[in-house]
Amino acid sequence: MAEQPFGIDFGGTGIKGAPVDLALGDFAAERERFRTPEKSTPDSVAQIFVDLLAKFPDCQGPVGVTVPGVVRHGVVHSAANIDKAWIGTDADALFTKATGRDVHVVNDADAAGLAEVRYGAAKGRRGLVIVTTLGTGIGSAMVNDGVLVPNSELGHLQIDGHDAESRAANSARTREDLSWEHWAKRLTTYYRTLEMLFSPDLFVVGGGVSKESDAFLPLLDLETEIIPAQLRNKAGVVGAALYATESG
Ligand code: BGC
User: Fold this and answer.
1) How many CB atoms lie within 10 A of CB 191?
2) pLDDT tens per residue, range 59-107
3) Which residue's alpha carbon is nearest to atom 12 within ligand 1?
4) For ligand 1, atom 6, which residue shows the shortest CA distance?
């Protein structure tokens, strides 16, 4: 286990982490979860990472961390749904210093996308795969022939004068108490816009609501094949660990 990578999924409610077996694309030990602090500034989150890693003293490999924002070369550049203190933070440097480990930060949807393409729903698929995560916001990963184009941020496309995620994220469905049919109409508008812009070969739909995909994916009216993600709530941790290993 010593050199196995460790993945951390930093989300709005929980911070989850586990050592990852990259041959299997799965956790190598049972994951641990901490509650995300109310004010989840970079410094408060760094302290939780220290506590989380301390639970796995035998795992000393590189550490990958997902962040729900734009990440370029370890620096966070946006914070749509997290504390604004993240903007401009060199998260790679901060977490490496706090934990004494080799830490690499990656956008949350990009991590999920890497994991789905390598191990999950889009395994073995050629061409352009667009993985979207439907949660509080909409995350996106564009992976062409297995190569990630990072920070695509397709949740923030302007559609009919609205930031797309404010209408089509799962949070909009619950906030506005939309029926599956009504939400599916909004999703159709959203994915049709992606089709027009990118002509993808495959859409993969992740995020917590993807476990209920039978209720809404069949209602979408699209040209492109669209399938649910497979790694479910493991995608962030597995993808982060993969990213850390391949960035090291
Ligand atoms: C953020 C993205 C993130 C997505 C899902 C969006 O609001 O801008 O960076 O991937 O939410 O968390």
Assistant:
1) 22
2) 999 999 999 999 999 999 999 888 999 999 999 999 999 999 999 999 9
3) 68
4) 137
241, 24 Cβ separation under 8 angstroms: no
CATH number at residue 162: 3.30.420.40
Q: In this structure, what are the phi and psi dihedrals at residue 231, rounded to the nearest 5 degrees?
A: -80, -10
Both 104 and 129 in one domain: the answer is no
Number of domains in the chain: 2
Claim: this prediction has a pTM higher than 0.85: yes
- For ligand 1, atom 11, which residue shows the shortest CA distance? 137
Domain of residue 59 covers: 6-111+234-247
For 109, the 3-state DSSP assignment is helix
Q: d(Cα 114, Cα 99) in Å, to the nearest integer?
A: 25
- As beta bridge partners, residue 71 has 76
**Ligand 1 centroid distance, CA of 87 (Å):** 13
